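Submission checklist for the structure archive. All mandatory fields must be present; incomplete records are returned to the submitter.

[x] Identifier: Carbohydrate ABC transporter membrane protein 2, CUT1 family
[x] Organism: Microlunatus sagamiharensis
[x] Residue count: 302
[x] Sequence attached
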Amino acid sequence: MSATLRPARATSRAAARTTPTSTSRRTGTRRRLPFGKTFATFLLLPLCVLMVFPFVWLLLTSLRPQNTVFSGPFFPESFTGTAYATAWTSIEFPLHFFNSLWITAATVVGVTVFATLSGYAFAKLDFPFKNTLYLLLLTTLMMPGTALIIPLYLELKSLGLLNTQAGLLVLYISGSAPFSMFLMRAFFATLPDELIEAARVDGSSELSIFARVVLPLARPGVATVVIFQFLQTWNEFLMANTVLQDTDKLPLQPVLFTLTGQYSTDWPTLTAGLVLSIIPVVLVYVRMQNQFVAGMTLGAVK
């Protein structure tokens, strides 16, 4: 009987010795985590407020009477939606919204096709003057877009593409493809060469390897290119306003700029048009945010 009680007493003493240590460790961990979370909250909360404030002001201004934009309180005493109806009809919003939508969609498709094909070629294929061509394409990123407006304008005029949406697409795709190619090359370079070699041994062509093996693995990179290109093209103003002289061919952003007057501006109508123009950007990002985050953090963890 005593032999049976001795191991039990030894076990209880060992548990009593280890329990305070483990409890103190757990308590210390619990004490450290809330402090870190609290510090991060106080650090990030002002940044969030600072970033959200312009959008809140934009939304509230679009819903308030015009005579209370700068004289009334921050939160309007009365809300009205007349500015949205005015913005919808005064600038032919549906027409220019459709122009922006199809121009942006065509640009995203064109840039994605060129960027993925060229990125795969520069990352996984061997061909003459590979590095030279890659450096030449990268040098185009060093030229500011504003410095190229006059040469591009004259070039489109000589080709007969001035004042056409096709000419604007040529500028958008050719100007955005090098950066997207550089981004996709970095994604394709992270993929193991053994997958491509195994597909080649099985008899697959390079196009089949690209479409069935490589491209599905690079979905985060493709999503990153799509979001970046959609934002850039949808919000582009300078090239569209320079190349297109016909008002019916203009995308949405140059037309919204016409709502700003020289001496006075109808701020509720302008902000209502801007709120409506933000909706496609929000929908695209919400739809592809998981792939976008995965693409941005792909190089952080291996």
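[x] Structure attached
Curator remark: The chain has two domains: 2-62, 94-296. The chain has twelve helices and no strands.
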